[in-house]
Amino acid sequence: MELKHFDFFLNSLVKKLYHKDKSITNEYLQEGVIDSQLGSDQVISLVDTLEPILLQIGHSDLSQNALEKLLEPLELRQDFHQHFLKFWEQQRDEIRSIVRNELIFNDRLSGVSWRVDMKTNSKKISNINQPIAIVELLLSRNQQEREDTKSIMFEIDKTQISNLVNQIEEIESLLEKGIQQKN
Amino acid sequence: MSFFSEKRSPKGIFTAINSLNKFPQQLLAKLCQDVVDALQYKGSVPQVSHYQSELEKNSIDLGKNEVQSTINVLFFLYRDASRVSNLDQKQFLEILQKQTGITNQAGKVLATIWEREKENLPSLSMPNVGKLIDFKWKVGVTFSSSISENLVTPFITVNISVSNTDELVQTHSFEMSVPEFKEFARNLKEINQLLEVI
After folding, report:
1. Under an 8 A CB cutoff, do B192 and A101 touch?
2. Cβ of B191 and A157 within 8 Å?
3. Looking at residue B45, what DSSP letter applies?
4. Which CATH architecture has domain B131-197?
5. Where do the structural domains in chain A lie, given as residue ranges?
6. Domain residue extents for chain B
7. Does the pLDDT at position B167 exceed 90?
8. How high is the pLDDT of residue A151?
9. Which residue in B has a C-alpha nearest to residue A98's C-alpha?
10. For A116, which of B173, B184, B194 is closest by C-beta distance?
11. pLDDT of A121
12. Which residues does the UniProt record annotate as the domain COMM (chain A) (predicted)?
């Protein structure tokens, strides 16, 4: 097996485990390494070895050191070992994002769009020519392989958005503190 | 003020349509499409300079203000049309022809784009826009789950209450991961800055 085959396995298994790509079967993997000398038994054995590791590092957001420890008993070829570490370093952020999104069981915010208008029709004269923002939030939920999206639209004026931003800043400083404590 | 339903024309519409009439057909179609895309947040607002230079290539000389007015009038027309329920292509064209000095050719271009895109624009109809009544939030840290063990990560949950035009209040709740929250925050701050400046 060459490095390119090992890389193919890593990438394909990530697609299967995290991107939920159902086309990644053992047959697919076998076909992908047809120019190697790997037999189907070896492919299965490799999948059985790599999958648990890929699952663990992703779901527990393990560090490079932790991955090293996991790889030790495998006694991989030096270049494969290094490649795995580099692979994890590149993929970690994206996989962490995917796993985090899996933990949002209810609605998640999948989009924000907005525009600013000048109010031109209003009962109150003082409201005319006041700017207001119209915000659209797209909320999505994963329902059995389909994604249901609903849209919520509302208008918001200067005062309201200013209050909102104050609250946003409160949340931001909370998150800052939380991150600092963790570190 | 509604053009398509109340037949009320905003000031300057005749002049703007006059400039619109000078556009070559294909360029006009492209401009209409750009405006409709921008209304769906699929693209950015059409650039005056771009259209000016395209017109020049066709030996048509329109000033910056005239080109801007054509962009403005298209935004106005498509937004207004999207607020009228069941406005079909024929009605769109008829009203346009009666209320403005639009040429047959230009009118047909606008109406064709309307026919194609009208299903995609319903979210702009005003009746669905409510008022923000309440905004509640909480920040929690998930420290364990059935899916992942050590993923100690904060989640921000928001509860917003929106009242629609019938005074009915609906409450929606959603969660955001930290990066999603940052994007949400960025958008709100941008809106805040804009509203302060205007």
Report:
1. no
2. no
3. P
4. Roll (3.10)
5. 3-102, 108-182
6. 13-120, 131-197
7. no
8. 84
9. B177
10. B194
11. 53
12. 108-179
